[in-house]
Design brief:
alpha+beta; ten-stranded mixed beta sheet; flat
């Protein structure tokens, strides 16, 4: 850098600093101006009147101007004279009163007002202008004075002036500019505040008018309330004539009404009898007296009301006057604390004169009765008197009727005594007849109905069934097992106690409308009516068998009993009750011969009388023609699945076309049963050549030790053409022995498909699905129906579906082949169903000539 450039750098820097300082000063001025305007706007929006606005503006300006002397002069819009609106001065104070005549037009303020421009004067300039006649010098001379015209649109409405008495505090151009800007916004602020003052003034005037109107309305409302109150009181009193049951009830209700209009904690009602000259007090509620005894007419407060026939309001001063004048006399002194400090009594006037009075009194100055109270009680007393007069007349008439009734009752009492004696004899005879009827129709030991009553009820039920065939019933014939052992080992007394205990247990197994009876000895019978499904009778039998598993103990000895039960259902072929009892008894003996502690359903074969030549042929299964019926497994849309259910049927000479499940019970021995079942297995395999999966019901007999070997040997030969799923009955598996269960698991381990048939027919045991790996589960039709009837079975179904889904087991529902039935089950999660059965001779039976029979 050259020597000539060196002085130029500081000069340039100084110029930049000077320029920056000027910009900073300008920014500060803008900031002050903006801040002042914001504050002015806030004050204009918040202050309620002009007298508060000017001091607020002065406070704003003091932050930016060098002096505390400030005043505002505005032109009167009517006289156009300049009037002082605000004045604050360090020396002069308020030398000119606000809103009064002054000479501002002659001074510097008037000069600025006329000139219409901002004007600044020093002390010398002010004096020089005054000497030149521009204006007059008014007030104490200031060192510096500035006046700014206040414009509203194009018109000058006043002057804003500031002055300083300090020689060292003059006004800068920025401060003057601030005053000019403030004056521009001051007119708007003044207008806003004036409008607010006007609005508030109008609001006050309107509020005052509304208050006056509201007071008048409240007065009218109060008057109407009083009128309505009196009307309601009249209604209540008029209702006493019909609602009050007697005079005592009427007095209580009158007391309640008086309480609603005045202080009535202590109240009594007195009645005056002119003929006897006595006053009675039928009603009295008082904190010092429980009741008031009748007394002769004397000179008390009550007598004063009756004799004057006017309402009396008595305070201590008047009470003293009455005592001194002798109008009221006291027979004995009254304790001071029991003296009424305020007493009010009104006469009960009727067309016949005064019949009494109603009085209220207060103690210890708890209440002072007023003229309003006096007016109200006088008003209601006339209405009360009318009601009481009516009630008294009614009571007198009622007393007359009671007297007449008493005389009639006295005359008829003798006759009633005679009738009572006769009625006692009749009742005694009825009791004897009822006891005789009960003894004739009930068991003396257990108290249960006996054979006679049971047969009578069964006859009625049978006749009802013939009229309404849909109202099914069932009869359970029960014979107790080992009852003779209880009698022999524990004694007949223990046997009687056992029968009583069994009768009580059986009664808890049936419904209220069912009938339990004792036929005699250890034989009981149950009549179940209103059956919705036949399974209900089997449920009752299961409950009885379960409760009989508990041993009977007496004198330290316990004997296990049981129950053999035979069940027969309503049938159109029954014409007499003897036939029903016979069939139920036959089923019971069959259950007892089959092993006891079980139930059996009646079957016609149980009572069929056969010749000795016919009997073997009719009971040998291997001689009966047999065939299969198939049922496809379908979904809700009736689309056929890959599975079909095969069921065997036989043609029995007595039973007719009957399922193998029933026929196998009458096999002569196990060997015959096993032979026929294995032949059926082979035959089903031959018929199922064109079916992907055949579900074939099998007996639990095939799982016993020796029979299982023959069973698996036959199965091993049936390979290659079709696939069989061996279905075992749920009840048989539930009561199977350990060997049978182990063999069932072996079938699954050997690769054969197995399944549960008639699952949950009487109970739903989920452990059967978890212990053994099944491929199919066929729900019984009974369970499927109950899922739609009871919520508890739906919960059981959800458990079944949860387990089967987890283990990959297919669930198939049995039941009516009705689309609506299947649609309802589908909502619960079941989507596979057994379709209607059809004969195989129409489909696959043609593939084998032996399809019609097995010999």
């Amino acid at each position: 850098m050259s020597s000539e450039d060196k002085p130029a750098a500081p000069s340039k820097l100084a110029h930049q600093n000077k320029r920056l300082k000027a910009l900073l000063e300008k920014y500060k001025q803008s900031h002050h101006l903006q801040n002042a305007l914001i504050q002015l706007s806030e004050q204009a929006s918040s202050v309620a009147e002009l007298t508060l606005l000017y001091p607020a503006i002065h406070d704003i300006l003091q932050a930016y101007l060098p002096s505390k002397s400030f005043y505002v002069v505005l032109a009167n819009q009517y006289t156009h004279a300049l009037e002082l609106s605000y004045f604050c001065d360090e020396k002069d104070g308020i030398s000119v009163a606000l809103n009064q005549d002054n000479s501002f037009e002659e001074g510097a303020t008037g000069y600025v007002y006329k000139l219409g421009k901002t004007t600044c004067f020093t002390k010398q300039e002010m004096q020089s202008a005054a000497q030149n006649g521009l204006f007059k010098a008014l007030g104490s001379p200031a060192e510096y004075w500035v006046g700014v015209p206040i414009y509203q649109e194009q018109n000058i409405i006043g002057v804003l002036a500031a002055q300083s008495y300090d020689k060292h505090q003059d006004y800068s151009s920025q401060q003057v500019h601030l005053l000019e800007v403030m004056s521009l916004y001051l007119a708007t602020a003044i207008e806003r505040v004036k409008k607010r003052e006007l609005l508030e003034s109008e609001v006050k005037i309107r509020t005052r008018a509304l208050t006056q109107s509201n007071d008048a309305l409240n007065l009218e409302i109060e008057q109407r309330k009083r009128a309505l109150q009196r009307q309601q009181i009249l209604f209540k009193i008029s209702e006493l004539a019909t609602q009050a049951q007697n005079l005592d009830d009427a007095y209580v209700k009158i007391h309640q009404i008086i309480k609603t209009i005045t202080y009535a904690e202590n109240l009594y009602i007195a009645l005056y009898n002119k003929e006897t000259g006595w006053i009675s007090f039928p009603y009295c509620v008082d904190e010092f007296k429980d009741n008031t005894e009748p007394r002769p007419f004397a000179k008390g407060y009550s007598e004063l009301v009756i004799s004057s026939e006017q309402t009396q309001l008595i305070h201590p001063s008047r009470a003293k006057e009455l005592l001194e004048s002798g109008d009221v006399q006291r027979n004995k002194p009254v304790p001071e604390e029991q003296m009424a400090t305020s007493w009010l009594g009104a006469p009960l006037k009727t067309s016949q004169g005064v019949i009494g009075l109603i009085a209220c009194q207060a103690y210890n100055n708890n209440h002072i009765f007023s003229k309003d109270d006096c007016e109200l009680i006088t008003f209601v007393s006339h209405q009360i008197a009318t009601v009481l007069q009516t009630k008294l007349a009614t009571q007198a008439l009622k007393s007359s009727h009671q007297e007449l009734e008493y005389r009639v009752n006295e005359k008829t009492k003798a006759l009633q005594q005679a009738n009572l004696h006769l009625q006692m004899q009749i009742d005694e005879r009825k009791k004897v007849e009822q006891q005789l009827y009960h003894d004739a129709h009930h068991d003396s030991l257990t108290g249960l109905p006996n054979r006679s009553l049971f047969l009578t009820q069964l006859e009625k039920t049978l006749q009802h069934y013939h009229r309404f065939p849909d109202h099914h019933f069932a009869v359970l014939f029960i014979d107790l097992d080992k009852f003779k052992d209880i009698n022999d080992q524990l004694g007949h007394h223990a046997g009687d106690q056992f029968l009583i205990s069994v009768a009580d247990l059986f009664s808890h197994c049936i419904r209220e409308h069912d009938l339990l009876a004792r036929l005699g000895g250890d034989e009981f019978v149950i009549l179940l009516t209103h059956l919705t499904e036949l399974q209900q009778a089997e449920d009752v039998a299961d409950r009885i068998i379960n409760i009989m598993k508990k041993p009977f103990c007496s004198k330290g000895t316990c004997i296990q009993s049981g129950a053999s039960i035979g069940i027969t259902y309503s049938n159109s072929s029954y014409q007499h009750t003897d036939e029903i009892i016979r069939d139920a008894d036959a089923a019971m003996y069959y259950a007892k011969n089959a092993g006891r502690d079980r139930y059996e359903l009646f079957h016609p074969l149980l009572t069929q009388t056969l010749t000795s030549a016919e009997s073997p042929a009719q009971h040998h299964l291997d001689s009966l023609p047999m065939s299969f019926r198939s049922a496809d497994i379908i979904n809700l849309d009736e689309q056929q699945q890959s599975e079909s259910l095969f069921e065997a049927f036989g043609e029995h000479p007595v039973l007719g076309y009957t399922s193998f499940e029933v026929l196998k019970k009458f096999a002569t021995d196990k060997e015959q049963h096993l032979q026929v079942e294995l032949e059926l297995l082979q035959h089903a395999y031959a018929l199922a050549a064109n079916v992907a999966m055949v579900l074939l019901p099998c007996s639990g007999l095939l799982l016993e030790a020796l029979e299982f070997n023959l069973f698996t040997e036959v199965l091993s030969k049936l390979q290659g053409q079709s696939q069989l799923c061996l279905l075992f009955d749920d009840q048989e598996i539930r009561y199977a022995c350990a060997t049978q269960l182990e063999n069932l698991k072996k079938l699954s381990q050997l690769g054969y498909s197995i399944g549960l048939n008639n699952f949950a027919k009487d109970r739903c045991e989920l452990n059967a699905l978890t212990d053994i790996t099944f491929d199919y589960v066929l729900l019984s039709s009974t369970f499927s129906k109950r899922v739609l009837q009871q919520e508890s079975f739906n919960l059981q179904l959800q458990g079944v579906l949860a387990i089967t889904q987890l283990k990959g087991i297919k669930v198939i529902a049995k039941g009516p082949s009705i689309l609506n039935f299947r649609a309802l089950l589908d909502k619960y999660g079941l989507n596979l169903f057994v379709a209607k059965q059809q004969g195989l001779s129409e489909s696959v039976a043609a593939n084998n000539n032996a399809a019609q029979s097995i010999n």
